[in-house]
Amino acid sequence: MKMKLMRLAGLLYLACFAVVMTTGCSGADGINGTDGTDGTDGADGTNGTDFPGPVPAEYTAADGILGGAAYSKWWTTDAGGSGTQPTTTAEADFYRCKACHAWDGKGNAASYANRTGQSTLTASRPDVAWVNLRSTPANQTYQGLFDLVVHAGARDIDARDNTHPDYSLELTTDQVWNIVKFTREEWVAPSLLYDIEVTGPAMYVDRSATPDTVVAPTITYSNVGALGDEANGQTLYTSLCATCHGADGTAHDLGGRSLGQFVREKPNEAWFKAKFGEAGTGMTPGLVTATSDLQDLYAALANAANFPDLP
Ligand code: HEC
Ligand code: HEC
Fold first, then answer.
1. Which of 43, 69, 171, 283 has the most beta carbons within 10 angstroms of its beta carbon?
2. Residues 32-50: tens digit of each pLDDT
3. Which residue's alpha carbon is nearest to atom 26 within ligand 1?
């Protein structure tokens, strides 16, 4: 009897085991295989170009000296313009680059710090701009600088306005590239030609005075031509300037000044005329281009004994 019971229990156990086997009791997952090795690196990209990017062919072909002439009077034939000043209701200073940006490109921060405009009681010309064109190229691509000069969509050329005009209908593409090249390559650092000191408060109108009075800083020039070679400057003067301005620079009255006096009192401007010309005078762009020659000319013309004031 006992044996029978034990056999029955064994059978029940086996039956139960068979049920478990068929309904599941799955085995554990296998272990993942190891990662394959990395693929080989892709080929390097092509090199980028350094800022400000590739030099456009138009820039290479441009003439920075003519660009300087255009900065003064862009409509003249000397500067590659049509020869016709735009019909305009505004004075030329409202569209001459130099009127807003100064001969030195520093706007109202240096030689033009005391130059009045519309908001300082001189209605016939714009206020001098606060931007420094000498530092602009460092932050611009060639095309970026081109676009800043053109300023498409800006104010009308005829408007008596202090802001930068729209030049898209006024300047030729060649002229704009010339100006871009001028701006990047042809400025002469003022400190190579003279020292300038601006003292006093920034310009404003004192409306408590009667009549309203402009208060402006004082500008003092010194060391004109101090870095130049006077003897070489005299030689350059004799061969390049004396035929028109006379042996001692007094043959032309330049707004009440002899040439020597002009250089001593407006050293911020004289170099510009010598380098980029003065339309209508026979002084063609590029008369004196080397900075060392400009320094030498200044050294000679600074000497008031040889180049006196007008009598
Ligand atoms: C009536 C005044 C006026 C005239 C004329 C003018 N500008 Fe400007 N220009 C400005 C002012 C103001 C600014 C700065 C604000 C702006 O962009 O309008 C400026 C901006 C610029 C800038 C960009 C500067 C920067 O760092 O963002 C360039 C470049 C420039 N002018 C070049 C020229 C050239 C070249 C001419 C002549 C073809 C010219 N300007 C004529 C007033 C003038
Ligand atoms: C072909 C003749 C000629 C030659 C050469 C010449 N100039 Fe002039 N220059 C003039 C005339 C004309 C004026 C304007 C006179 C006037 O305003 O009546 C002038 C004006 C100037 C002015 C003043 C510009 C202004 O805006 O008032 C400067 C500065 C000047 N010349 C410098 C020079 C220098 C420096 C040289 C030599 C590198 C030189 N010039 C060679 C004819 C000449």
1. 69
2. 888 888 889 989 888 766 8
3. 136
